[in-house]
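Researcher: Here's my situation. A collaborator sent me these components and asked whether they could plausibly form a single complex. I don't have experimental data yet, so a predicted model of the whole assembly would be a useful starting point for our discussion.
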Amino acid sequence: MILLASSEVAQQELGFGFFASLAAAGLFVYSLKWLSHPSTARRGVLAGEIGMALAILAALLTVWNMPNGSGFGWILIGTLLGAAAGIPMAVFMPMTAVPQRTALSHAFGALAAALVGMAHYYIHYFVIFPDPDHVSYGKDAHPLTMAFLCFEVLLGALTFTGSLMAFGKLQELIPTRPITYPYQNFFNLALLGVALLIGVLLVIYPGQTWLFPIFVILALIFGVLLIIPIGGADMPTVISLLNSYAGLSASMMGFVLDMPLLIVAGALDGSSGLILSIIMCKAMNRSFLNVLFGAFGQVQESSAQTTQKQVKASSTEEAAMLLESARSVVVVPGYGMAVAQAQHAVRELYDALSKLGVDVKFAIHPVAGRMPGHMNVLLAEAEIPYDRLVEMDDINPEFPQVDVVLIIGANDVVNPAARHDKSSPIFGMPILDVDRAQTVLVIKRSMKPGFAGVENELFYLDKTSMLFGDAKAVVAHLVKELKEA
Amino acid sequence: MHDLSKAPDLATGLFVFLLATLLGLEVVRRVSPLLHTPLMSLTNAISAIAVIVAIELSGGPSTIGIVLGTLALIAAMTNVLGGFLITDRMLKMFKSREARK
């Protein structure tokens, strides 16, 4: 009898569910591997989809075999509602809104992890709906399991509210500038400390069910407070960091439930978020701690010394003539291009110049835009071939040979002060060396300083001409001039 | 249904976690910066693997499990379906110069 029981267990462990999750883990790794290059990337999506489908199939089979389960009704409802929210968002959302969608999807992923953790806690420590048939009825949770569960819920809950705040800032529902108040960092850390303390108490006394909701609420509040002091231009780092947290939360769930597939999928997400955060931090010459606690981008009042200087404004006619006679042009897109939705006008400019035999490239700074790779997606959407999009380190040595640089809505990433002005807040940040090109054209709405609140000395150089106006309108004008020429 | 009173298999878990993280770091490091946005939406869809636990909860016997599980299922399913779709939509747009002509 005992022998029979154990062989049954062994069979269950090496059944379809086991092989499905093994295959899914492998497919997820290949999914990311194939994403390394545009030519294989769509295969990567397919691998991910197959892995996910296998894992879901195995989960449905588990429910099918549950002796006392509630059937498929709720699963169907949940799936339909999820499809109703997810599919239209994926199909119709404009590419300029991709950062917002990404923040929202981090929020959903983290919410799912937090809810699952809460469900496992409350199934064990039923309060309102007792379930005496449950395997662990009346037994206390194991401290180690409880510790992982607490981490899962903490990371899930704070990433949920944090991502919602990031979404709010990206959608401009709440002010994008950092919101600060005295003793902010001290207060935030104290709150986190209290939450961790309650977590420790829960590990020791898991049956104290009144502690659990307090723990969850503190984690939710901490998520809000963590993002409030972070400004819009730091969003690429913050989104990457939240990505990492959401993944870690899923990994923790895997520890709680002894499910290696969850650990693997979460770790892949976590390491990807970590790498992107590091790249973003390096591209701004800042540390994690500085991004999280530095409240960068507050309006600084100290940069008055350059205001006496004059900038040179230019007309679109002059600019078009300059572009037309150039051999090589490098376009530097920034967040301003996304705001003005100018990517399609830029594509027309690219076509017009290419037709005239001008070599046009696009220089992409890693933190241009509001999330990693934001500019690339926008320009790809406008059907600019991806081999024209050049990374910072590859394009920088080429600038001295470039005839005209056209800057569209970028500011801090082209400020030469980052190279030499030790007093500048952006000193040390790697920039695009556009000031080494022959001439520079800057399309800009007004002389307002960029996100970092720093004056840009590039605008005052002799070789620089400013084209004031809405990016889309100015680029459209340039295209018209070029076509008439 | 999972038993919280049982100790987790810490050694195996850490082993898997460490290897998967190292593998993830190596693989993601090779992803072209061109594709960092699709990378993030793809990893987001993959980490919505929590959907399988949500399914087991919503189809399970416990009432509280069904309530929280179904809510988790809605959230995770949004990411699974939306995440892969939008990643593919983005990747379709990346064309080289030859492909465009």
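Model: Some features of this prediction you could bring to your collaborator: The radius of gyration of chain B is 18 Å. Chain B touches chain A through 93 residues (CB under 8 Å).
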